[in-house]
Specification:
- The protein has 240 residues and is an alpha/beta fold.
- The chain has a single domain, classed as Rossmann fold, CATH 3.40.50.
- The protein is built from seven helices and seven strands, in the order E-H-E-H-E-H-E-H-E-H-E-H-H-E.
- The mean pLDDT is 92.
Length: 240
């Protein structure tokens, strides 16, 4: 399968893996719909893609607000005339015991990491179903595959996304929409800094987002009769 001229909607596209993924898929001929909250960062990613003769447009929305999500998805469809691929990439991280998490932080983790992808799928599915073939790829985390002593709330939010992704795959198994779940280990994306845990952090076990983006590009380019629906990636020699 080729991504040439496919319209790919990426959440969390303003930085980190989302931005790397946008640049990578644009280089493969895809038209990129960049979605995130930060307009200045989105503009920068769009410019990077345009400078490489790629095609991209950005749309500002908070994935935890369904009205904003619905409006942004409609704007993407109106601008490009279609949506072929949805990549739920937006996510936040936090660590500590349950007692260390404020109710607001617990709610935020679940809203961004689990509810946001559900909102995007709900808004985009009517459009995706109009395409001859379509794909949904949910970027989860290896943390969603098992318990983590200091990442309990974060792991729970990612496990919730895993449950949704697995269920959506079954819901759409008789359709022309392929659903895939992607489980990366740690990446050098700035996610620790944004959570306030960057100082002195060992990043030797983390992957470069550009390399992880290459793996996702391969997943999306598989023949349509093949589904790489559970893919885990970690830095060689590490289990993070």
């Amino acid at each position: 399968m080729t991504l040439q001229d496919q319209v790919v909607l990426i959440t969390g596209a303003s930085k980190g893996l989302g931005a790397a993924l946008a640049r990578k898929l644009a280089s493969q001929g895809a038209q990129i719909a960049l979605l995130a909250r930060g307009e200045q960062d989105l503009q920068q990613v769009k410019t990077q893609i345009k400078d490489q003769e790629g095609r991209a447009e950005y749309f500002v929305a908070d994935v935890t607000d369904y009205q904003q999500v619905e409006t942004a998805v409609q704007q993407v469809n109106e601008h490009f005339g279609q949506i072929d691929v949805l990549i739920n990439n937006a996510g936040i991280w936090h660590q500590g015991s349950v007692a260390d998490h404020s109710p607001a932080k617990i709610e935020q983790l679940f809203k961004v990491n689990a509810i946001g992808p559900i909102y995007l799928a709900k808004a985009a599915l009517p459009i995706l179903k109009q395409q001859p073939q379509a794909q949904i790829l949910n970027v989860i985390s290896t943390a969603g595959l098992g318990p983590r002593a200091e990442w309990g709330v974060y792991a729970a939010s990612k496990a919730a996304l895993k449950g949704f992704s697995d269920s959506l795959k079954l819901e759409l198994q008789d359709s022309k929409i392929r659903v895939m779940s992607f489980y990366p280990g740690g990446m050098k994306t700035g996610i620790f800094a944004e959570a306030g845990f960057a100082q002195g952090r060992d990043t030797s076990w983390m992957m470069e987002p550009e390399r992880v983006a290459t793996v996702i590009g391969l997943m999306l380019s598989q023949p349509l009769e093949i589904s790489m629906d559970h893919v885990e990636v970690r830095k060689l020699g590490h289990r993070g």
